Amino acid sequence: MKHFEFNLPTIIRAGNGEFRKTGTYLRGLIEGTRIFIVTDPGIEQTGFVKQAIRMLEQQGFETRIFNQVRPNPRDIDCKTGGKSAREFCADAILAIGGGSVIDAAKAIAIIQCLGGEPQDYAGRDNVPEKVTPIAVVPTTSGTGAEVTRSSVITDTAKKIKFTIKDVNIAPVLAIVDPELTYGLPAHLTASTGMDALVHAIEAYTCKLSNPISDGLALQAMKHIYPFLRTAVNNGNNQEARYNLMVGSTLAGMAFSHADVASVHCMAEAIGGLYDTPHGVANSMFLPYIVEYNAEAELKKHATIARTIGIAHQNDSDQYATARLVDEMKQLAEDLSIPTFSSLPEVNEKDFVYLAESSFLNGSTPSNAREITKEDYLELFKMAYSKENKGVSPLK
């Protein structure tokens, strides 16, 4: 019988139009008047930041913008942002953007309050006290970072990613408004949507799953999978956008209270080395890890296939899991997500390094099946050659 803890300190305000209440929500939640806004140049161009500033000023807040966040957020940018937030004497941080912006905001809050380097707080439960309150407005339906206690940052010197996991950096408020995703390009809808689906799958199958995270993960899959192709093909479909947004948040809650696993370990390895978009990287390796893990968690993988409607209740677990492997490949292809071998920067000489980096990732022990550096190396080779081994019991 598992012992587990479920701690969700984040207030979630979800639904169309919720963004327009940002100022009111923060006024009722935050002490003080100084709001440090973390975003990126692309989000600034959408006008969302200007709207937020106008709403905040109406509530008597002062603001300062930090827009130096890049995809796969860098440690050096987080340190710069933390210094700027400290100089501003920020009473709260408002992150407006995708997962990179939200993860950066969490690291910025740490540096503002505690100083040092983001790497000083890597690992689990290494943030000794509550940081500056963080409110988040996600603009993609992918990372679920609005409800997680995690921040994934790139070490620019070592070209690897590290994760800070601590309830002290969990946002106090998440404003989850599907309307902010209507203009999201198809390729970003695809990659972030696949990221959310991987979160749900890995949360459900990893060793740290629990009954509550399982329920959240399965429900997330029901919101994400049936609507992902529709959202990519028709970005203004309100039903699809709503379901992806809610599904992403549910998946974030699930993996934050369980963990991710080897798909993310491999994705973060190539993200650190090649700066590959995270959702794209997850999509590349998902089918191979599902197949690899089937030996250890056949029933759960079969349950996923049945939950998303690609296998019937009377199908064998082996058949259902094989269908899941095939469909995850087909889904990525239908969404025009590139394969690992199609990335021009990929070099087979890097595979040993990537395998080592994957193995050292903090989520490797959470993978459903024991996995070694040699296993990772073989999986990188398989993904590169687009070869399936038919890992037992799928032979």
Explain what this protein looks like in three dimensions.
With 395 residues, the chain is an alpha/beta fold. The chain has helices at 22-27, 41-46, 48-58, 75-88, 99-114, 186-205, 211-233, 238-256, 262-274, 278-293, 298-307, 317-334, 351-360, 373-385, and strands at residues 11-14, 34-38, 62-66, 92-97, 123-124, 134-138, 150-155, 160-165, 173-176. The chain folds into 2 domains: 11-181, Rossmann fold; 186-385, Dehydroquinate synthase-like, alpha domain, CATH 1.20.1090. It is built from 14 helices and 9 strands. The strands form 2 sheets. A 6-stranded parallel beta sheet has the order 1-9-6-4-2-3, with helices on both faces. A 3-stranded mixed beta sheet has the order 5-8-7. The longest helix has 23 residues, at 211-233. It starts with 10 loop residues before the first strand and ends in a 10-residue tail after the last helix.
